[in-house]
Specification:
With 265 residues, the protein is α/β, with parallel strands linked by helices. Helix content is 47%, strand content 15%. The termini are far apart.
Amino acid sequence: MRLENKVALVTASTRGIGLACAKRLAQEGATVYMGARNIERAQEIADSLNKEGYNVKVVYNDATVKESYKSMVEEVVKNEGKIDVLVNNFGTSNPKKDLDIKSTEYEEFMGTVDLNLSSVFLASQAAILHMAANGGGSIINISSIGGICPDISQIAYGTSKAAINYLTQLIATQCARDNIRCNAVLPGMTATDAVNQNLTEEFKEFFLKHTPIRRMGTPEEIAGTVLYFASDDSAYTTGQIVDVSGGFGMPTPVYGDMIALKNRR
């Protein structure tokens, strides 16, 4: 019960990494609010989790409606009197339109960057005011390994995640005196519906060839690191950009080719 008596808010939490985070924080005793656009779907999930003995609630948030970030945080504080943990999980990209520098339309680029970066900035800005008044808190931003490893595609997504990494460290620096910590978790290829629907088997094979732990991660494995940053186990840790990617991008650039060569022998 590492989060007993804590109030947590997780955005975009009806599936994938967000849902795994909401469930994991609730398992550790937190009152967890699921920030979601589809309230009915979120409530069904919350009801199911509550039957298992957790304390999960729902609050409206639509990433395309920027005012909803402040209202989301305000509703949590109105109901619970505080907010201790914020997990900024929302992120979006259209792989069919978010391509390379030569092919990506400006509107597509700026739209993706704006949505992804604004989701972290606005939610954090709203939560920080209440965290400071309540003696502190923890903000965890779900970034991506793509924010530190340049790719041949998804220029908008990668740029937005790189900006989120830096924003994480700015928040950590500027809010430490208020006992507010801010860290980022960078998933590698994770077995979510979004990955399975948007990435080809060929791409997955290429990606995993360069991942020393030769498999995709699970949402629950990402949630484990989020729990660490949410709890007092990381009370002296802030401004960290931690990849949870199975080692992707760590070895020599020829690693994947060397592994493929050994497998053919």
